[in-house]
Specification:
With 419 residues, the chain is an alpha/beta fold. Helix content is 38%, strand content 22%. The protein has 13 helices and 17 strands. It has a 6-stranded mixed sheet, with helices on one face. The chain is elongated and about 115 Å long. The chain binds zinc ion.
């Protein structure tokens, strides 16, 4: 009895030991998991929203985490990056990647190479799964470092190639030194079509395309100071009827007041360009004497107004009154465009006078200055356009004009950045 009892006790104890060992193992294992989790959360690469799957592989006593996402192109990039780091894997080293999807469009992938707890290398990649492209600073920020610099302090001190996007912020730079940009407050900075919530709401506009006839004389019709009144639309419709493009140097605050007109004009295939926000150029005030900060406001607010309506930045500026110098021009990325034929429509307000001024001065590679403000300008154009066509002119927008000028080196072409 006693012996039996004893042996029974032994058996029970043996069982306890097994349970204890299993428990210890479980605690140790869980501990590794928990510390691993804590470590991961604090590390460079941890992203909470998962996009894709991780597969761990052991290499040279170290580990490499391969990430596979639902996007084929992104996977190619990730595999290429992982293969590049492969040679560096050795004992106690881990290459780890995690990913997340934001706005249903931007896959953010962050990777790091660690030795123990030390991060040796890291990379951050924002990828647009709709357009299948890696997002660069220029692709996100309307190709305009200057504009972002005005809003984001210390931008020059951070690595702009390291981009981290999440639901609320775009962070530029690495973990030690970075700037955070609140998306909601800075939507005007972001280019459309990259999936971010922009002012433009990702609406795609495909404007009509005009072609010109090679070998013919070249003319660009340009219209300043609108869209203020019904003449803007009348001139646009006239150009449309004749199947020719025009260029409209618009005033920013009028764009804000008449966005529908600007959109219609852009959709019709005409060029929308920058003519300042308030049109300083009268009463001794012009872009050359209002101070750098005010010039920037004039340029940038107009760019923003145009971008908001057509989803595209203007490519050229016409300084009001033609007042510009090198210093002023350096405050924008855009070409400063003048004219070679002045219709003097603002002065004469008479259709015959406008007609004559253009007819007497027009030449091959003309940029003709009009204002889409006066009925008399519209009346003059009704006569001018068919006649110029008959005289062998073909009509181009200002960007095409500047392109053609690069090729021909015609003396009259010298209308851009002429100061
Ligand atoms: Zn003007």
């Amino acid at each position: 009895m006693r012996r039996e009892y004893r042996s029974k006790r032994y058996r029970v104890n043996y069982k306890n030991i097994v349970i204890a060992i299993i428990s210890v193992l479980a605690i140790v294992f869980a501990g590794i998991k928990v510390t691993g989790w804590i470590f991961k959360k604090d590390s460079t690469v941890y992203l909470e929203k998962k996009y894709g799957n991780q597969k761990i592989e052991k290499i040279n006593k170290g580990k490499i985490v391969y990430l596979t996402t639902p996007n084929k192109k992104l996977n190619e990039i990730l595999l290429e990056n992982a293969n590049k780091v492969k040679d560096k894997i050795k004992e106690n080293r881990l290459y780890d990647c995690s990913s997340a999807l934001y706005f249903n469009t931007i896959a953010q992938v962050n990777c790091s190479l660690k030795e123990g707890n030390n991060v040796l290398e890291y990379s951050k990649l924002a990828f647009n799964i709709t357009s299948n492209e890696t997002l660069t600073f220029d692709k996100i920020f309307r190709d305009n470092t200057r504009r972002v610099t005005d809003v984001v302090k210390n931008l020059s001190e951070v690595d702009k190639n390291v981009i981290n996007i999440d639901d609320t912020h775009i962070t530029l730079g690495n973990d030690d030194k970075n700037v955070k940009i609140v998306i909601k407050d800075n939507v005007h900075l972001f280019k459309t079509g990259n999936g971010l919530p922009t002012l433009f709401q990702n609406k795609q506009i495909t404007p009509r395309q005009f072609t010109y006839e090679k070998g013919k004389k070249i003319v660009a019709l340009t219209f300043d100071d609108g869209p203020l009144n019904a003449v803007h639309g009348k001139i646009r419709d006239l150009l449309n009827q004749h199947n020719i493009p025009g260029t409209f140097y618009v005033i920013g605050n009028l764009v804000e007041r008449n966005p529908d007109e600007v959109l219609k004009t852009y959709q019709s295939g005409h060029t929308i360009a920058n003519h300042s926000y308030t049109h300083p150029g009268l009463f001794n005030k012009n872009l050359t004497n209002i101070g750098d900060a005010n010039v920037k406001i004039e340029y940038d607010k107009t760019d923003d107004a145009i971008f908001k309506v057509i989803g595209k930045d203007a490519t050229t500026t016409r300084p009001p009154g033609g007042f510009v110098n090198k210093k002023v021009a350096a405050l924008t990325n855009q070409k400063q465009v003048m004219w070679s034929v002045d219709s003097l429509d603002w002065k004469n307000r008479n259709a015959d006078a406008v007609y004559n001024a253009v007819k007497q001065n027009i030449h091959n590679y003309s940029v003709v200055l009009f204002h889409d403000l006066y009925e008399s300008t519209y009346e003059a154009l009704k006569r001018l356009i068919p006649e110029l066509k008959q005289e062998g002119y073909t009509f181009v927008g200002i960007d095409t004009f500047l392109e053609l000028c690069k090729e021909v080196k015609n003396g009259y072409c010298n209308i851009a950045d002429r100061y």
